[in-house]
Amino acid sequence: MKEADGDGEHDDDDVQGTAGETSDDPMEIVRTDGALVNAYEATNMVKSALVAEFERRGEKLIELEREAHALKQKTKSAESLLAATTAEVESLREMKSDHEKSKVAMREELAEERQANMLALEREVGRACEAESRVKTLAEELSAMKETLAAIERERAEDSAEDDAERYPSDFAEKNAELEYSVACLQDEVSNLKKENVSLQARFQTVEAERVEVTTRAEQAEEALRECESLVAQAEATVLDIRREADDAKLARGADGDEESSKIIEDLRGMNRTLQEELRVATREAAEVKTLRRKAEFAATCEERAMAAESRALRAEASVIDTSSLQARLSKLEYLENDWASVIDRLSPGSVKVPSDLVERVISLETRLTSQTGEQGKMMSDLAQAQMKETAATRRATEAEEKYQKIESSASSAVEALAVAERQIAMMKGQVESLNRIVKSYEDEGNAAAARKSTEKEKSKAASDRAMKELEKLLAHAKERIAVLDGELSEAKTRAETAEAAATAAAAALPVENPVTLARIETLEREREELLERLKRESAQEDDSKALKVLHFKSNPVASAMRSALEKEVESLRSEAAGLREALSKLQQGSVSSASEADMTVMKRKLEDLQKREQRLMTVFKRQISAFREACHKIFGYKIEMNEDAGACTFTLTSDYATNPTDAFAFKYDDKSSTVSLKETPFVAAPEIRRSVETFVTRMRSIPAFIANHTIETFNQRDDDVDVDDDGVDAMDA
Fold it and tell me: Which positions are tagged coiled coil (predicted)?
């Protein structure tokens, strides 16, 4: 436009010079004959040249306007393509988050399977214990038989008779048969255990090979996931670069720029498709890794079972060896018994004692031996049962404690979810009311614009139509925002109901035997009923707008920010509309440089509005952040200081009740994982603080509970009287 104006000024000079020269020629012609006719013709030529020049400039202005319109269309198309690319990147982020959720679910399933395998292992250990107890019983029986044989030998050394010689060979034969049968059973069991051990070893080797393969594939899957994350980061960086290039070249970009942006967008789409394929492959590999991990855990279980079976086989072999040695000794005893019988036969009747005494003595010894063996076996069985009962009771107590902790944590999370849902409902109600007011203001402005439209002239019709379209777009956007907030409100209600159901289920799943658990259940039920009544009151107040009373902050930062943003947007729209009206009026009046002046006016007003907006935002931010920090200090009793070191934020908390200025906690905040960790300091290393850290942070994993406990302890340890400062606290009776 400036070049056109410069060309126009140069052409005016040329035309004026031509007119001057022409005006000089008629003056010379006037001094000759026919001067009047020549002067009239020269004047007409000058006028026609000026008219042609104005027409040419008008056509050039129209062409420039068309070019500007074409550039705007191209810019809009580039912005739409950029928005599509941004949407694709967001979809990639969602896919990444879904993949992370699936990874978490896989880890949970692996933990559950590991727990199931541990239970199966415990059952196998129990079976092994039973087998060991059975082997011990057999060993005790063998030792009892050995003692019986020794006693019989001693009795025979003291008392020998023919009846005893006739009777005891049959008893020894029966016991020998029983021992042979037990030896055969043990040998069968040993052979079975050896076969099972061989099969388990072969299976273990197979599963070990599968486990190695699983480990390799898991590493490959993790490498693929890292590559996917790097590709997503590259795509995000590319999108940011495209946005910056689009902002820099929005007014000066032509057809070549559009082709380059389309090529970049096509590349990004191809990259997105590649990422999607890689994510699907990674998901399949993760599923295979999960299956192979199960097989590996089963292989480990099989290995343990094989080792247990091998140990049982070794014990059985040892018992077989003992039995064989006992059998050899029994054969020796039989040989000695035959010798004793022959000796008794050769003895004279006078040198032999009374057989009845020997028989009665042997019978009494057998009775006593039988009673002792029965009492010992009963005692061993009672001891084994008591040990098993003790183990089962310990396991049940541990499981009940874990279940109680899980249910308590789920109940606390449900209460927190209900509180969060209530806060979201209140916030959404305020946003809906503010948006309703905004919609009403838009409707009023639209009605006023319609009224002005009926009274304005035809020359402002186009500007009014554009303003109405913009207002309609804003109105539609506000209505869409209201619909989105309504959906979020319904989702918050659904989450509240889900949390309530979870709390109910958690309370129902608590063990009834523990009185502490019963008291905790009653407390949680009372809290749930109170929260349910509050939620019902909130839902009932939604329908009754007259009875609804909403308490707002005196200076709500959210409402003030929304109000200031709306005011700034309205002011910018009004300034732009005023500039467009001025430009339109100047164009209609026929001014040549009106378009450039209108653009300059609009740009100046936009620049002033942006500067004012930045100043207001900085002022509001400083005021709000200082108020927020002071309120946190007054409410929680801790002075908080933030420091940044190598991209990590460190928060130092100093209590108002601290005795020394160095008694402070330092917490490190990780922005990527959204976690807070306590840093090691001399104050934290103190014994009393260390106990609290181990109790609340290490075992319970609750930093808020640790801070609250420290506040109460320091408050109770003060020697002087406490004067409560109510300057920064506002009390309100609801």
Answer: 54-109, 135-292
